């Protein structure tokens, strides 16, 4: 894969009527969706997160990365056409590109690493946009502000971050994502960032989606007990 890759944060809402189907129908739907997910993984790096009860908009968060936007589109179409996917509606969808930061010459392992290594327990992802005034200020001013911003982030090594650039491709300017095993530490980080100088330039940083990392089969089983008998992963 190249350095510039497409990132897709995709929150899916399940039609509650699906839970009232017979167990055999639910199992067949789960089998078909898992098969589509396996096909997806040949083209797209994809991790699954449960948002059941955490967001009113949806229950399944797919965190995806691909070499091309066509791969994002085609695998999404396959998932929506397969089994339980036919009962799902995209609630939130955000697209961005990973690109070298103009503020960081050498990213640390804490940055741009959310698709490598072992998954942490939690993923927090949201859209982000900055003010016009921010972009019209000098490069030196912006660099100084970002230096303070990054210093705060580096004080929390248990929280990893990815920034994807969305401007020109989607409504938000960036997709910001954090991965951690410690939500309390993450909230402490956010509290510090809220009082930093960089906060002045923030225009939008919601909705915030918090997902719990689980294998797809486990999430489908939570949708309806007895759904995934024999399915692993």
Beta strands, count: 9
CATH architecture of the largest domain: 2-Layer Sandwich
At the fourth level of CATH, the homologous superfamily of the largest domain is Apc35880, domain 1
Helix content: 25-40%
pLDDT < 50 stretches: none
Structure write-up:
- By secondary structure, the protein is an alpha+beta fold.
- 30% of the residues lie in helices and 30% in strands.
- Strands 1, 2, 3, 4, 5, 6, 7, 8 and 9 form a 9-stranded antiparallel sheet that branches.
- Helix 1 packs antiparallel against helix 2 (69-80).
Features:
233 residues; alpha+beta; Alpha-Beta Plaits; 2 domains; nine-stranded antiparallel sheet; 9 strands
Topology diagram in text:
Layout: E1 6-14, H1 23-40, E2 45-55, E3 58-66, H2 69-80, E4 88-97, E5 122-130, H3 132-136, H4 139-154, E6 159-165, E7 174-180, H5 183-194, E8 202-204, E9 209-213, H6 216-223
Antiparallel strand pairs: 1-3, 1-4, 2-3, 2-9, 5-7, 5-8, 5-9, 6-7
Please summarize what this structure is.
By secondary structure, this protein is α+β, with helices and mostly antiparallel strands. The protein has 6 helices and 9 strands, in the order E-H-E-E-H-E-E-H-H-E-E-H-E-E-H. It has 2 domains: 6-97, 2-Layer Sandwich (Alpha-Beta Plaits); 122-211, Alpha-Beta Plaits (2-Layer Sandwich).
């Amino acid at each position: 894969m190249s350095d510039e890759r497409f990132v897709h944060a995709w929150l899916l809402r399940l039609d509650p009527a699906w839970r009232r189907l017979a167990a055999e129908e639910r199992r067949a739907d789960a089998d078909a969706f898992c098969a589509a997910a396996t096909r997806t993984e040949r083209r797209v790096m994809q991790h699954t997160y449960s948002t059941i009860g955490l967001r009113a908009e949806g229950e399944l968060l797919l965190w995806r990365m691909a070499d091309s936007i066509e791969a994002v589109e085609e695998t999404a179409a396959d998932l929506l056409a397969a089994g339980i996917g036919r009962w799902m509606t995209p609630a939130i969808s955000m697209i961005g590109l990973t690109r070298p930061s103009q503020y960081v010459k050498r990213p640390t392992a804490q940055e741009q690493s959310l698709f490598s290594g072992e998954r942490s327990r939690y993923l927090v992802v949201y859209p982000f946009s900055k003010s016009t005034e921010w972009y019209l200020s000098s490069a030196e001013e912006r660099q100084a502000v970002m230096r303070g911003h990054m210093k705060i982030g580096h004080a929390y090594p248990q929280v990893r971050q990815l920034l994807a650039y969305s401007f020109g491709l989607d409504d938000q300017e960036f997709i910001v994502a954090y991965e951690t095993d410690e939500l309390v530490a993450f909230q402490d980080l956010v509290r510090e960032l809220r009082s930093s100088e960089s906060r002045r330039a923030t225009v939008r940083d919601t909705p915030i989606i918090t997902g719990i990392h689980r294998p797809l089969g486990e999430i489908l089983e939570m949708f309806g007990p007895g759904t995934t008998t024999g399915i692993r992963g």
